[in-house]
Amino acid sequence: MHMRTLQDTKFSILELAPVRDDKSVEFSLKHALELAQYAEKLGYERLWLAEHHNMTGIASSATAVLIGYILANTQSIRVGSGGIMLPNHAPLVVAEQFGTLATLYPNRVELGLGRAPGTDQMTMRALRRGRQETEDQFPQDVLEILQYFDEPYVGQQIIATPGQGTHVPVWLLGSSLFSAQLAAKLGLPYSFASHFAPRMLDQAIKLYRENFQPSEYLSQPYVSMGVPVVVAETDAEAEKLATSPYQRVLGLIRGDLRKLKAPVESMDGLWSVSEKMAVENFLGKAQIGSTKTVKAGLENLLAQYDVDEFIFTCDVYDTDQRLNNFKLLMDIKNS
């Protein structure tokens, strides 16, 4: 079997548009663009934005709008959603939004779909006011969107304009076995959310590959894997920078969804033993360290899972250090 190397593995970015505790939301949105422009220069494959709601620390809630802003100010990088949480939206609206983007920016737009709400119960009800949507509706909704992007069939009553015939690539995202099975059945590319829920990664990839049915979209399985990263000049420096994502995940576990915090010298005293374990489980696939350390870690992940693509998240606090993180990652790929 051909063993994939880092050189022939695609590198992409999942941008959560984190909001720093000392900066405005506007700063975060402009930094997301700055990151996309830098990623384009460095040769990243794609930059995706994730839909979250009612989180003061994440600025990408109006995902399609932010994608439009980034597309308008970049030239070639693919930009998409990782993902749009489909139960929050009518499929037609999603198809029209992404069909519009794809019409304005041909061959650069991608639609990753998730079936989780991406928020809490109360916010979910606010998003779905008047809609009786459930997650069980997800497979039907995905098929409906695929049809809106296809050529219309004879007698099709509802035409997505723009959308129809744009053939926007659709991906399924997931952290459980459900989306893996559906992606396999529909012959769609699959992205596993191991950047926050690595527990079922092994099973999900295996299930997807074993059950994959070739389709008009894809002739063989394609797997992308979420990996949190902090790369710096030394292991010690990376460990210090990583205290920002540690604090963020600790906040999530405590139900405190505040803004990204500056790094600290040590996490001792900030978390309990069980909280530390929970944070480490959440970040189970994280690669933190110098280029040498992270290179070895990524090679190890590749040997274990043989994925087609890594999609990286990075919660480094300082903007320049965050950009540098993505430069060092590309150095690793090309070394």
Automatic annotation (TrEMBL):
InterPro entries: Bact_Lucif_Oxidored (IPR050766), CmoO-like (IPR019949), Luciferase-like_dom (IPR011251), Luciferase-like_sf (IPR036661). Signal peptide: none annotated. One of its GO terms (molecular function) is oxidoreductase activity, acting on paired donors, with incorporation or reduction of molecular oxygen. Residues 15-247 form the Luciferase-like domain. GO terms for cellular component: cytosol. To bacterial alkanal monooxygenase alpha and beta chains. This is Luciferase-like monooxygenase. The lineage of its organism: Bacteria, Pseudomonadati, Pseudomonadota, Gammaproteobacteria, Moraxellales.
